[in-house]
Amino acid sequence: MNFLTDPNLQPWLIPVGPLLAFIIITLATNRAKLTPSGDMVYGGFRPPYGNMPIPVATNWSRILSISVGMGGIIMSLLVSWSMVFRAIGDHDFGSKIFGNNIPWLATGTSMLNVGVMVDPLNATLLFMVPLAVLCIFIYSIGYMAADPRQSRFFALISLFAGAMLTLTVSDNLLFLFVGWEVMGLCSYLLIGFWFEKESAYKAAIKAFTTTRVADVIMLLGIVYLYHVTGTLNFREIMYDNNGAMLELLGNTPAILFGSFGFSAASLIGVFLIIGTIGKSAQFPLHVWLPDAMQGPTPVSAMIHAAAMVSAGIYAIIRMYPVFVGAGAFAADPHHGIFTQPLMLMALVGGFTALFAATMAVAQNDVKAVLAYSTISQLGFMMAALGIGAYVAATFHLITHAFFKALLFMASGSVIHAMEHGEHHVHEHAHGDGHGHDDHAPTHANTHEHGAHDHSEVHDAHDHDADHGHAGHAEHGHGEEHAAHDAHTFDPQDMMNMGGLRHKIPVTFYAFMIGGFSLAGFPLITAGFWSKDEILADAWLGATEGFGPHAFVFVMLAIAAFLTAFYTMRQLSLTFFGEARTEEAAHAGLGGPMNIVSQTMQLPLIILAFFAIVAGFAGVPQDFPIFGSIFSSDGSFFFHLVERSVVPLDNIAPTHPPFNIFPVLVSFAVALGGLYLGWVMYGRKPLKAGEPDPLVAILGPSLHQTLARRYYMDDLYTLVFVKPSQAVANFVNVFIDKGVIDGILHGVARVFTWLGDFIKVLNLWLIDGVSDGIPHGIYKVGGWLRGTQTGRIQQYLLAVLIVTVLIGIVLAVSSGALAAPR
Amino acid sequence: MVPLWFYLIVAAALFCIGTFGVLARRNGVAVLMSVELMLNAVNINLVAFWRYLTPEKINGMAFAAFIFVVAAAEAAVGLAIIISVYRNRRSVIPEEADTLRG
Lengths: 821, 102
Known about the structure:
The complex is a heterodimer. By secondary structure, chain A is mainly alpha-helical. Chain A is about 65% helix and about 5% strand. Chain A has 2 domains: about 10-415 and about 505-575 and about 590-680, no CATH class; about 715-795. Chain A is elongated, with a radius of gyration of 37 Å. Chain B has a domain at about 25-90. Chain B is built from 3 helices and no strands. The longest helix of chain B has about 30 residues, at about 60-90.
């Protein structure tokens, strides 16, 4: 058992670093001291604490937790990358994998083993996840530098990373589910990290409950799978014995809907897909993801890119052979034969991709646009899986993680800069005599120098009317804003930005690279190559007349067009033109040479690099020019994933031959969308106060519908939240207070009566007897005590008298006093 | 020769005086002295009965000797008690030492 040299044991070490970091930070370095709350700010929200002492992480605890957290993830990165590179260099890799398992649950004669493995599929994730997480950690150092609960943040995000890595290296579905659920918990804790804000804790609950609905169904799928096959190990189910297990699954009629042609495999597949619909935020369970922006921005990056949503897609890719199936249930998406799970994925994915893209078009919040684009891009992956293009889906998963993490962190940097500008404007407002409040001295201190206090991290304000501007409304400076510019300033609103490219150039270029990658800017961005591959696969099927392929192709092409459009709109509104507010004019990260701007910009540079070059790993071999440069002996990525040996022909990945049409479509939608965005927003940038030209084009009601997310949240509120509140209220009033409390009170009353009766009995009988005895003794004693005069001569007199009496008695009884005989 | 009952009367008189002293005197030392009188009255009886009834035996004298020893011990203890009481209460009157009164 040598963990350092045996490659079969090394995968165990991958999740250990962050998990250990979580434990160490939680137990040892999470120290806080009570500090008067003063100007403490929780994610832009100043809770009404007065000047109550609140725990604030001490400096050494901040430093220690950062170093422990970084140490953990760096350890994971080193181990994973050493595994990945060893795997790539090993030509047998694929048929031979690195793995190890131990018995965990012994039930009767069957034994459930859990273990870890590295195979070509998760090797791709093991390259991406630790890198993206490391970037997020570095970014968090600057982003959370002033947060009162910084150590806690690092503990939780370490746990998050550990759970994602556990999920990634797991060799069976149950262990994967453990990581899956721990991530659900972490997302809850981190979205609600600033739980002082009402919108934040509501978003946390929403995310947790929404994914929980899906997770329960997924667990049903896992249980059913175990019931049918007796194992949850990926290799035993899908790769070993030439797919015997898959044939068993395909030939067993399902326990539910069996009469509708569902086999066990398809029912399990549907259940697992529902789990992913929740986790990867697909329609109709996508509603939690936009609200998840309420967490700190690094958490958004973590959820949207590196961890949570990727985990959903990964789980499907992992179980993909089950969905395609074998035996009587075998499908062959490349020949137009679909199973229910595949159809479900194609429909849900295709629809979600377009649906979310339309919503993203109308968002004004810089993070909301990205949130919807995440949903949309995950829809791309789902759709690709549905039509059998699982290599393309895996590829898109990896490239998307890089550019989406980049975009989120860049948007966090934008927000940060805007808050900086907001401080600056405040400062002047105070100077002009508008200011009034007692915080003024503190502000003056924090603004004079570069390393400004970013306690004012206005993160994640939901624009939805449901949550409203609760954060702002209770914001200590609400009145000042009103005095200053007659509206509540939102540092995330793109309408308030403009012209930021001169203020934060590094962020601008990074954002542009990420945005172009998201839009699929042809040939040089990663997003183009992965999206193009999905479209090529879909087009191939569509030309052969397969309905789902055609559906997916059309939906994805339109979605890709909208993606390019809203990306350009976002870039233009944020960075181009002139500053539309005074805040934007003073935006900045506080100079180039402070730790905040450095730690927040370094990850952007790293990820920007990967957002471009990651695409070249998957260039199709027969693509003109580029194919011969980057894939002279076949697409690297394709060959890597292909090597996860699948025993069945219908599952084996196929490579669509080069076809100019989908490529032209890719070019057209990407460039067309970008051009349209440029025409509408970039060429003639919006002036301050000018309305969004989109409103005029779409009409106010349609625009409003899009901006309000098709009223899905209102619908869910009406359909799920309100009824459950009504049920809760009913249960509270009738069942709890009426029935249960009634029974309890009745029982209590009976016992009170019984108690009263016994009390009377006690007083009368028991007390009568037991008090009477001591009382009598007391009486007698009182009477007898009179004899105890304490006067010794009286005692002696008594002795004398008694002696005389005894003498007389003796004399009489002996007859001495009788007359002499 | 003086008859036996002369001795007995003297002894009885002495005992009665002692008894009266024990019961009636206020001074603790006097009470102790009265106890000695009573013991000596008993001694006279013992010696008288021995001389008149069984002069060939030694038991009467032996009892008397024992009573002397007991009396000496009693006097020593009694006086010690009285001194101790006096130190605590500045009085040698038994009536006033009534802490144990019920």
